[in-house]
Amino acid sequence: MNFKKIDSQIAKLIERERERQETTLEMIPSENHTSAAVREALGSVLTDKYAEGYPGKRYYAGLEFYDKIETLCQERAKKLFGVPYVNVQPYSGSPANQAVYFALLEPGDTVMGMSLPHGGHLTHGWKVSFSGKYYNSIQYGVDKETNLLNYNEIEKLAKEVKPKLIWVGATAYPRFFNWEKFGEIADLIGAYLAADIAHIAGLIIAGVHPSPVPYVHIITTTTHKTLRGPRGGMIMVTEKGLSKDPELPKKIDKTVFPGLQGGPHENNIAAIAVCLKEASSPAFKKYGKQIIKNSKALASEILKYGFNLITGGTDNHLILIDLRNKGISGKEAQIILEKSGITINKNTIPFDPNPPFNPSGIRLGTPAITTRGMKEKEMKKIAFWINEVFSNPKSYLKVRKEVKKLCKKFPLP
Ligand SMILES: *Cc1c(COP(=O)(O)O)cnc(C)c1O
């Protein structure tokens, strides 16, 4: 095979992207670097065939090995997360969440989720998403004083609006979730409780974030964030979910296919199976522990330079910085850091007085740089560079050089 001969333009662009990744620090908390094994499964002949249906009940012929692969993926996910049911076909996190709505609710039903500007996800009822448009979405947020979830307020709201479904999960919340408390609230009003662990799935597997399994009915996740697999999604049902509604697995299977999707992307499913195998190794537990050590080290270094961290620190893989005392906007910060070789993203902070396209904060995380093998010592350097380019934007070229030098010592997987 000679990819470069067949399509030199795309081959060249991929090569350049590889180089960009090699020479910069990926610090967007939702991102990671996959293993060569995951990428090999993803780029295999499994992309060639249709496999509508589920293992043993397909609509197409020639699927002997596809069935074995999807079954293996399911078995690995069930074992790793400790759940009796999983669907591994959703194309990504948002379609997985959409399937949960379609399986459980009718349009107009009441649903509760964390609002996007406070750290929730679009699909948890935000107004521009299907979830806010076609359902009666009631949003909860964080406390104005502490920026933490206020469980008493959430309970009060839930009792008042009686949602049929409650979502817990976030894209920019630096603290643990109290799953047990959410479980109590949902049980009190008879609601379904869904944990969206897209960001933290890998941390849960590594045992460094509490698991929602005993307390929620349904779990959705992406497979490409801390779990470190290919882009994809999964929906799980817990024992608690089965005892509330034994029909849940059937409802979800039927909704994913034929309700929402056609043929599953089996190359993706094979790559998810590989990532689940990797995630069940002792090395992955160590990886998860190091993600947390790194983000705590980074947070404490950044604090030393007088930055304001939302909630004062972090329990997980991400840090949210309020830049208002530093005279730089989230957008400006993102641009100058990108020029320095540090990729982060601008982010709203709770109760942000500024608009979402130029918010007051930035969000940064350690999953990808921890995959490269970086530790506390490197976090110290990174915090220094971040402070340096914010204090003196002209220093970005110097920092860019130093970032490149550091990256050389920590090759991509
Ligand atoms: C990333 C994320 C999703 C959506 O995943 P996509 O793959 O981008 O559709 C859903 N929920 C949460 C909490 C997320 O962080």
Question: Overview of this structure, please?
Answer:
This protein is α/β, with parallel strands linked by helices. It folds into two domains: 40-279, Aspartate Aminotransferase, domain 2 (3-Layer(aba) Sandwich), CATH 3.40.640; 290-409, Alpha-Beta Complex (Aspartate Aminotransferase, domain 1). It is 46% helix and 13% strand. It is built from 17 helices and 15 strands. The protein has helices at residues 3-6, 8-23, 36-42, 64-81, 93-104, 130-133, 151-161, 179-189, 201-205, 239-244, 248-260, 266-279, 282-304, 330-340, 367-371, 376-391, 396-409; strands spanning 25-26, 53-54, 57-58, 85-87, 110-114, 136-140, 165-168, 192-196, 218-222, 233-237, 308-309, 318-322, 342-343, 345-347, 361-365. Strands 4-10-9-8-7-5-6 form a seven-stranded mixed sheet, with helices on both faces. Helix 6 links the parallel strand 5 and strand 6. Helix 3 (36-42) runs antiparallel to helix 12 (266-279) and helix 16 (376-391) packs antiparallel against helix 17. The longest helix has 23 residues, at 282-304. The two termini are 23 Å apart. The mean pLDDT is 97. The protein binds pyridoxal-5'-phosphate (PLP). Pyridoxal-5'-phosphate (PLP) is lined by residues 30, 92-94, 97, 121, 123, 169-171, 196, 198-199, 222. Residues 4-386 form the Serine hydroxymethyltransferase-like domain. Keywords: Amino-acid biosynthesis, Cytoplasm, Methyltransferase, One-carbon metabolism, Pyridoxal phosphate, Transferase. The modification N6-(pyridoxal phosphate)lysine is found at residue 225. It is an enzyme of class 2 (transferase). This is Serine hydroxymethyltransferase.
